[in-house]
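Z., the sequence and structure:
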Amino acid sequence: MGYYTVDTELLPLKSLMKTHVVILLLFLVGGTILLALQVLLNASHEYDIPLEPRFVSNIKGELSNEYIINGELSDESDIKVEISDESGIKGKPYDESGIKGELLNEYIIKGEPSDEFDIKGKLSIKSDGVHTNQCTMAGLLSGDWIGEKWVPRECSYTQITSNPKEIERCISKTKFGFYGDSTLIAVAKVAMRLGSGFEPNVRTWSPPPFLCGEASFPNSGYAKMWWTPSAYNQKPANLASIKTDDVAVLSMGPWDMGTYYKGENMWHSAMKNIIMQAAKKTKGPLYVMHLHRLYPDKCKQVHDDPKGLTAYQRCVECNSLGQNKLFRAALAGAVTCAIEQGHDIKLIDSFPITDTPFAHNVSDGVHFGSPVTAMELELLLQVSCNGMDTVGLTQCPKIPSYNVGATKKCIAG
């Protein structure tokens, strides 16, 4: 399959006018010419910009008030751009007419106002309309929420969670075991829904035998959610199912940051043991979900009494950004130590997609709404199914020194 690089340039208004005038003189006469020229000079106009090579599908789109051209692949070799009246960008006029910017993946042009109707950029695509610059994990995590979709800035990838064929390939045939707390329950429920086609019935926690819920998939796969929220209590390695899972996923943190807090150093050591014990039992790699962004400003006092106040204060203190980062460092260190001991561990880090205004808006402080949770699953699947690289590792400390805030419970210095 051939690859092509398409350079697009929206010509200055004067050049466009000359081109259109020549065409109009060739094909129109009399009053028709005057009418066409009037349309041409109208402040609201649609331009057809030819692209090369002509046989490569290109895009159509329109300027929005965020200086974005959103478009979809078309069979025509052009970009159609609608300019608003008042010599500005549709939705928000400016004194300067047009934009300059660069083409990004997902067929988006971002830019700033310029003194010409001018868009310059480069779009690399396959002949089937897919970008040639495929994402690494670092590239995938470097993006923005556009609406409810996460869009990498400089690369493209095939999304698994929205593609029926990819869901069949990566989910329906796979045996998933999820071991962790309520943040992982949210991810597990998305996998269950996509794999089975039904809304799963999953409890928010479970006493022994700790199974919160499960779902069977059409192609012999399954997803099971096991309640193991703390490194100091339930041990995933003690559950027999971890030996049969194709993809075993572990996630702990928030409970040990608050209710079971014993300091960052102790948690690092406990997590290192939990991870290594589990990795010895798994068929393949052990997938560890890194701590995502927590938002203490979303904490609420549920009960109007001293206990309720204490719970609220702990929520604010234990989920602070400083504390969040200390526990993330402790977990990354634990994973690195396990890897250095010869274990196959993949650390899945969703912090960049959760450390955003959009994620904050759909967060209750600890959990996220479906678009963000689905993207967390997407990151996992890109690694477990497509073999994408992982990021976020650090050094294994000889002597842990993560307890910056251990002198005052749950407060990072």
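The first strand starts at residue 3 and ends at 9. Residues 218 and 372 are 26 Å apart (CA to CA).

Let me know what you think.
H.
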